[in-house]
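Minutes, project check-in
Item: structure for the 135-residue chain
Input as provided by the requester:
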Amino acid sequence: MTRRVDPVGAGDAIRARVPNVLRTYRSTRANVLEGGSVDPALKELCARFLAEDEEMAGLDETDAYDERERAALDWAQAIAWDPGLADDDLWERLHSNFTEPELVELGYYIAIVHGQLHWLRTLGVHPPREQLIAP
């Protein structure tokens, strides 16, 4: 079946009140949230963490995540809740697991997803789990 009209989520309906906001967000969604060079599964893991997904394994479990995932999740925590966690150790782990362009993309992704989740929640919009990667 061919989709004739793309579905509009509550977030896009709100953004559409200011067409330039919706256009900018769609570009960010295409180029960073859904596209880009960082593994989409890693981005989704960070999005689930930022959304405080109850189904995620405990972050303290050392074998729950590999080193790259652990570094990304620790960075998400630093960006979202405690910038003081971005110490020399974290930066060393980030640089050993990611290139600088990947760090820029992942950091921007984390910032956008975190901000969007909080903004939409203040408006009473709670994106379903499958929309976390592009709330």
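Outcome recorded: The helical segments are 10-15, 19-33, 40-50, 67-80, 88-97, 100-122.
No further action items on this chain.
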